[in-house]
Design brief:
27% of the residues lie in helices and 29% in strands. With 245 residues, it is an alpha/beta fold. The strands form two sheets. An eight-stranded mixed β-sheet has the order 4-1-7-8-9-10-11-12, with helices on both faces. The chain has a four-stranded mixed β-sheet with strand order 3-2-5-6. Helix 1 crosses helix 5 and helix 5 packs antiparallel against helix 6. It is globular. The two termini are 18 Å apart.
Length: 245
């Protein structure tokens, strides 16, 4: 199985430490850093999960460094602060010619965090070039992704695009809406998940997308793919930080 992933990537950094008192000059916690972890994030996390599952992956992403640093109280696992850098310097992807041959790929995965790397035109062009395009996007859903095989969004993103779905009900049959602890929904079918103690939801959507694509390409069944993706996401939310399956 050979896949192509396109989208913004970052470094997900977690700084765990102590926050046991407030600063005297302001009602802010005094954070004493301890250990630090660092992992590929966003589209790069999708790539890492696909590789763990056994796929061969080509990756096209931004050249600049995006860093997401989260400061977390080690005792309670509460997120105190997140600092993002590099979001404002992403160079847009230069779309290929429509004659570009992408037939070597079993599927194309678009992990669009809406940082400026992939335009609506780029996404539309990619969907025109391949019949098996999976999209996870922070953009409002529109006709530019109507040729995608499946689109994955969360409940808030679905509600933000509800007017489009009301006018284009056919898109519901290819839009998978994740529902957190309730699982996910495709059209009118809800796929529940096993209840687990959630330690961190960061990166769970990337893992879900990777599991979905890998299983769909392996089996051709969207039902089996969604069930497997749910299982994958359930495993990673039970761990701290951003991690692979």
């Amino acid at each position: 199985m050979k896949l192509l992933v396109l989208g913004e990537s970052c470094i997900d950094e977690f700084v765990y430490g102590k926050a046991e008192r407030l600063a005297p000059e302001a009602p802010a916690p005094v954070f004493v850093p301890g250990r630090k972890t660092s992992n590929p994030g966003m589209a790069a996390n999708v790539v890492e999960n696909l590789k763990v599952l056994g796929a061969s992956v080509d990756f096209i992403t931004n050249n600049n460094k995006i860093l997401k640093t989260r400061y977390v109280d080690d005792k309670t696992n509460h997120l105190l602060l997140r600092v993002d850098t590099g979001d404002d310097s992403v160079i847009p992807f230069n779309v290929w010619s429509d004659k570009t041959d992408l037939s070597e790929y079993s599927a194309i995965v678009i992990s669009d965090y809406c940082k400026g790397f992939l335009s609506e035109y780029a996404i539309s062009s990619i969907c025109n070039m391949h019949s098996n395009v999976f999209i996870d996007t922070k953009k409002k859903i529109g006709k530019f992704m109507s040729l995608a095989k499946y689109v994955k969004i969360n409940e808030k993103e679905f509600l933000d695009s509800k007017s489009f779905f009301d006018e284009n009900p056919a898109m519901l049959k290819k839009t998978i809406v994740t529902l957190g602890k309730e699982g996910c929904r495709l059209d009118t079918t809800v796929y529940p998940v096993e209840e687990v103690a959630v330690k961190d939801q960061a990166g769970a959507g990337d893992t879900f997308l990777a599991g979905l694509v890998w299983k769909y390409v392996s089996t051709g069944s969207i039902d089996r793919a969604i069930q497997f993706a749910n299982e994958c996401a359930t495993k990673v939310v039970a761990k701290r930080g951003v991690c692979t399956i």
